[in-house]
Amino acid sequence: xxxxxxxxxxxxxxxxxxxxxxxxxxxxxxxxxxxxxxxxxxxxxxxxxxxxxxxxxxxxxxxxxxxxxxxxxxxxxxxxxxxxxxxxxxxxxxxxxxxxxxxxxxxxxxxxxxxxxxxxxxxxxxxxxxxxxxxxxxxxxxxx
Length: 144
Hints:
The structure is a single chain. By secondary structure, the protein is an alpha+beta fold. It has a domain at 57-144. It contains 3 helices and 3 strands; from the N terminus they run αααβββ. The protein has helices at 22-29, 38-85, 93-103, and strands at residues 106-114, 118-125, 135-140. A hairpin with a 3-residue loop joins strand 1 and strand 2 (118-125). The mean pLDDT is 83.
């Protein structure tokens, strides 16, 4: 070849020579900790956190539903017992309260007749949850 550029020789396809220096060899030999797989661990940890938070939220929602059912059973039992205590229906107020609570999947834990047709009842829901059993308390009687 005459008058042309020098032969680039073996190396890069674009014609640049690849140097094989000691500095390049040391860089290949040096061990550095890899971050490969850290994204997977982070995603798995984040997924477990989200699942845990959702589980806690569902358990709290379930406890709220059970508390509302126990309170509703107590309200209905107290109203039914107050009707009997005032003489609007026949029977024993506490027996009627227990039957009304049972029809609402609850058990009557206490029934107190406080003169003047006022009745106070406490109920416990028959269905338990992971957080314990729900209780309700209600008081009913004639209007003031």
